[in-house]
Specification:
Elements: H1 7-16, E1 29-30, H2 33-43, E2 50-54, H3 60-68, E3 71-75, H4 82-88, E4 95-98, H5 107-115, E5 120-125, H6 131-140, E6 145-153, H7 154-161, H8 171-179, E7 180-188, E8 193-194, E9 201-208, H9 219-231, H10 237-242, H11 251-260, H12 274-291
């Protein structure tokens, strides 16, 4: 088997099928065997695992996963890549390729069908333009997922792992922190891809908690507060939250809730931890229920 984790072999396969990377699908093909090995190692893939790969492309990472895992289910949106994958993965009988949009597939059904409902591991080189929706779909799917190991844009990776008070801290940081422990694994330069992206990348491992990191009365209400808090980062919480009619709270009610928590009433969202957002959500929801 000639692995695809190098420039020459990748170009050979693309030429064979008369293909090039499609911008609309955010395609950048990995050509660095060290990075491919690093991703599989970071994911802790063993022959006992069923791995869901998102966006296999021409199969570069898929080959490495197939060598390590018991089963690989690869979901690829680009139908023109299906014959390419049939060719590059022809020697592996433990790989199933599904030609679908991962945002539309039933993740729980995939887990039931291919792993008997037991927890899976997710590994992916994600398109930059759609990283957050995919991550949130995986978390919110209800499917048993042990971990998610992904290559993403460096800026997005930073947002996943940052804590309060940092410029990269935001709603994605809090959403990831609610569901999983985020660890930065390695930075990956543009030269590791064909074609080279205009920005650096990074690999992040998200180890799923058995239970969410904090307890909150209404998860959706809390995330509405979080999203609103970061939509206009420079606004105070009392201004931004009171301007969202879905939250049904006044500026004074937000200020009183912050005071009750021992937080300055002029605080901005970037200063609050996940635990503080959970408590603020519970207080405001209780206040809103009493007055509306």
């Amino acid at each position: 088997m000639a692995y695809l984790g190098n420039s020459a072999r990748t170009k050979e396969v693309l030429a064979k099928f008369g293909m090039s990377a499609k911008k609309k699908f955010g395609q950048n093909f990995l050509i660095d065997s060290g990075v491919l090995d690093g991703i599989v190692s970071a994911a802790g893939v063993t022959d006992d695992d069923c791995v869901l790969e998102i966006g296999p492309g021409i199969g570069s990472l898929t080959q490495y996963l197939a060598e390590a895992a018991g089963k690989v289910v690869a979901v690829e949106i680009d139908k023109t890549l299906i014959p390419v994958l049939a060719d590059t993965l022809s020697e592996y009988d433990n790989v199933t390729v599904i030609n679908e949009d991962v945002l539309k597939v039933d993740i729980e059904e995939i887990v039931r069908t291919y792993n008997g409902g037991r927890p899976i591991k997710v590994v992916a080189n994600l398109p930059y333009y759609i990283t957050t929706p995919i991550i949130m779909k995986l978390f919110e799917s209800g499917a048993p997922i042990e971990s998610i190991t992904v290559m993403v844009q460096k800026e997005v990776a930073d947002r996943m792992v940052m804590g309060p008070g940092n410029k990269d801290y935001g709603s994605l940081s809090l959403a990831v922190g609610y569901y999983a422990k985020a660890e930065a694994i390695m930075d990956v330069p543009p030269s590791s891809f064909i074609p080279q992206p205009g920005v650096g990348s990074a690999v992040v491992r998200l180890s799923r908690f058995e239970e969410p990191a904090v307890k909150v009365g209404d998860e959706k209400y809390m995330f509405e507060i979080i999203r609103t808090s970061f939509n206009q980062r420079r606004k105070t919480l009392s201004n931004s939250l009171s301007n969202n009619p879905a939250l049904k709270v006044s500026r004074q009610q937000v200020q009183e809730a912050l005071t009750e928590m021992g937080i300055n009433e002029m605080a901005r969202g970037e200063t609050l931890s996940l635990e503080q957002f959970a408590r603020l959500s519970d207080i405001l929801q209780r206040t809103s229920a009493m007055l509306n």
